[in-house]
Amino acid sequence: MEKMKNGIWLFLIICALAVTVVNSDDSEKTVVKTVKGKKVCTRGWECKEWSVYCCNQTISDFFQTYQFENLFSKRNSPVAHAVGFWDYQSFITASAIYQPLGFGTTGGKLMQMKEVAAFLGHVGCKTSCGYGVATGGPLAWGLCYNREMSPSQSYCDNFYKYTYPCSPGAEYYGRGAIPIYWNYNYGAAGEALKVDLLNHPEYIEQNATIAFQTAIWRWMTPIKKSQPSAHDVFVGNWKPTKNDTLAKRVPGFGTTMNVLYGDMVCGQGDIDAMNNVISHYQYYLDLMGVGREQAGPHDVLTCAEQLAFNPTSSSPASSS
Ligand SMILES: *[C@@H]1O[C@H](CO)[C@@H](O)[C@H](O)[C@H]1NC(C)=O
Ligand SMILES: *[C@@H]1O[C@H](CO)[C@@H](O)[C@H](O)[C@H]1NC(C)=O
Ligand SMILES: *[C@@H]1O[C@H](CO)[C@@H](O)[C@H](O)[C@H]1NC(C)=O
User: Which residues does ligand 2 sit against, CB inside 6 Å?
Assistant: First the structure.
């Protein structure tokens, strides 16, 4: 039923049994119990569900305000298009919904930091205005937008008129930290986040927490039920099938681009639209002190040769 349709920003060329309180400095927020032999925890408001993932560090333990400021250093410069909108706390608040499901909390500290760098790499690239105004270098301009500036249409697909009917007058153009488009994506994200985005798509450009939540929802949610999410392919939750292997899809960063953008970015060879995303990821790994060498080998980073999970040729109306 679902079709992959993605837009791009027009200006771009181109994720209980025993209850004990653990000691240490986390004693005030971490609570541990064992359910069916498995240790589960909560970690205060940031990871308040009982979950195995919450036993690991939370995102704010390893990614702090100064790092956010470094990554997005130009976002409040006068030529930016969302001055004063984006901030660190909105990102951390938004991530609280998905940390108990593994966002930024899977696999130990290195993988956790890499996932945040990868997710924010997509964010920085999709919201960059670094291509015309390169002071500080093109990679310094992430979070420069919070909406598509000159939408060519309102992205209302009547195929979904029973499940996600378009609200009269509403426009479902690209909004958020990883822009979402179309009534059905607004509808599905709104259901997951318990915010009425179908009737109020404008909330995403008015509230930075919601703008990060929809982006994290996109990162954590498969395009189709039978497929992996960008999170799954990145952290190693996904095992490629024989078809995936034939399509050159392997676990890692490259395949996150395949999930999120399909053949607009992947399977086109060594194009700018793909290299821009990779460059943001590598740059953020450096700025976060992880180092780009941790990104792994070229064949894991790229999707130049991959076939799309959801080819646009087999999907009607594409937005791009
Ligand atoms: C938590 O971190 C450890 C390493 O520090 C890792 O082995 C484990 O898989 C992580 N837990 C989850 C649920 O990812
Ligand atoms: C922004 O959205 C969040 C999440 O829905 C909500 O908790 C918060 O109150 C909103 N902020 C404003 C200023 O409306
Ligand atoms: C594998 O690919 C073939 C050819 O594209 C397709 O017919 C088949 O349904 C696919 N199998 C799975 C399990 O996706």
Answer: 195, 207, 209-210
